[in-house]
Write a structure and sequence with these properties.
Distance between the termini: 84 Å
CATH topology of the largest domain: Tetracycline Repressor, domain 2
Largest sheet: none
Shape: elongated
Number of strands: 0
Structural class: mainly alpha
Number of domains: 2
Order of helices and strands: HHHHHHHHHHH
GO molecular function, one term: transcription cis-regulatory region binding
Keywords: DNA-binding, Transcription, Transcription regulation
Helix content: over 70%
Strand content: under 5%
InterPro entries: Homeodomain-like_sf, HTH-type_TetR-like_transc_reg, HTH_TetR
Pfam families: TetR_N
Number of helices: 11
Radius of gyration: 25 Å
């Protein structure tokens, strides 16, 4: 008797027999029947990754695509996208999980060893890298945030992490600074400000200017 697969298409008896033979052969080499049956799961994972990577590619090009545009680019049906991701927030969460490992080091709370200038220079370099790697995705999140609780949460978590990093890296220097000066530091190092300035200056020019401005602020006391 034929066993239906998960798509509802009957598996021919001959194919079923071949599957059993192949499974037995693999088992003799240390593999299990599950390795065979997991092939469908692997295909599903490849399909999910194709959608994630394609969507990120389109977002990085400055466009927030519709499901129809993603499907056309991937060469799959819109129905397949909904099978992988039941809604846009599920896709956004998967994209975030793909992007975050690429930028996690940029948000490290542990300051590096070194004097004040070297710490400032390191943080400026990491904040510029953060914008280079994640700014297109972040802008998509920003545009989605008014209608998406998940996107709004992403933004709030990013802001809080960046502020926490500033507090940890310059704990001693921030003591005695006026709240307005701390706010200016936070603004100078924000992704929004750096993203805007990169439209006018190259990264080296921008980095040097930021280091100089931040050093001036951190070395003054109220």
């Amino acid at each position: 008797m034929n066993n239906p697969d998960t798509t509802g298409t009957p598996v021919p008896e001959r194919a079923e027999e071949d599957l059993v033979i192949l499974a037995a052969a693999l088992e003799s080499r240390g593999a299990s029947t599950a390795d065979i049956l997991d092939g469908r799961r692997l295909r599903t994972e490849r399909g999910r990754m194709l959608v994630i990577e394609t969507t990120l590619e389109m977002v990085n090009a400055g466009h927030i695509p519709t499901n129809a545009e993603i499907a056309a680019k991937c060469g799959i049906s819109e129905r397949s996208i909904f099978r992988y991701f039941p809604d846009r927030e599920a896709l956004m969460l998967a994209m975030g999980a793909e992007v975050f490992p690429r930028i996690a080091h940029c948000l490290d709370l542990d300051p590096p060893a070194g004097d004040l200038r070297s710490r400032v220079a390191t943080l400026v370099r990491l904040r510029i890298e953060l914008v280079v790697v994640a700014r297109p995705f972040a802008r998509a999140i920003e545009m989605t945030a008014p209608k998406s609780p998940l996107a709004a949460t992403f933004l709030e978590l990013r802001r809080e992490r960046m502020r926490a990093q500033l507090r940890e890296w310059f704990a001693a220097e921030l003591v005695g600074l006026r709240p307005a000066d701390v706010g200016i530091l936070d603004m100078l190092l924000s992704s929004e400000a750096i993203g805007q300035q990169r439209e006018q200056f190259n990264d080296e020019e921008l980095g040097e200017a930021l280091v100089a401005a931040i050093m001036t602020l951190l070395q003054q006391k109220s």
